[in-house]
Amino acid sequence: MIRPATPADVPALHTLIRELAEYENSLADAKATEEQLHQALFADHPAAHAHLAVDDTTGETVGYALWFLNFSTWRGVHGIYLEDLYVRPTVRGVGHGKALLAALARICVERGYARLEWAVLNWNTPSIAFYESIGARPQDEWTAYRLTDEALTALGTGP
To answer: Which of 5, 125, 9 is nearest to 66 (CA)?
Structure first.
């Protein structure tokens, strides 16, 4: 079962986010708190949205998709940027990931959004194979850049 997250889901979502960070060998970088997640997802004007994969038999939350709107100046409409897609290793391969992506694709279709986009680590070959199996294609002509920590502060406080 796929459903939108509720405020009561924040602790489980926070746990899953930390599991993803550990899987990506970046647990030390996962600094978001439950309070920050709650504010981002459930403020008057949410910065992000989340859908959960819930096991039909146990009721356990086994995966999530955390996303936000982007905008295409070329298409003139919104799209969805998928920040995280994670399914617990013990339940991978049974359709939770595809169901989460399908839920976001439905939102795009229903709202007239032009794109569903995300990034994947180059070494994550199982995920790459899965994404390509559903028709996603890499955007090889683009290189992602990120400005954080000291460099961000220096640029933001400089002349």
So the answer is: 5
Give the residue carrying structure tokens 């795009």. 108
35 φ/ψ angles, rounded to the nearest 5 degrees:
-65, -40
- CB-CB contact of 63 with 52 (8 Å): yes
Determine the Cα angle at 96 with ends 92 and 100, to 5°: 135
**28-68 residue pLDDT tens:** 999 999 999 999 999 999 999 999 999 999 999 999 999 99
For residues 63 and 86, is the Cβ–Cβ distance under 8 A?
yes
Span between the terminal Cα atoms of the chain, in Å: 51
State residue 159's pLDDT score. 81
- Residue 104 near residue 80 (C-beta atoms within 8 A): yes
Q: Which long-range contacts (CB under 8 A, 24 or more apart) does 46-50 make?
A: 48/83, 49/4, 49/5, 50/4, 50/5, 50/9, 50/13
Predicted confidence (pLDDT) per residue in 78-105, tens digit: 999 999 999 999 999 999 999 999 999 9
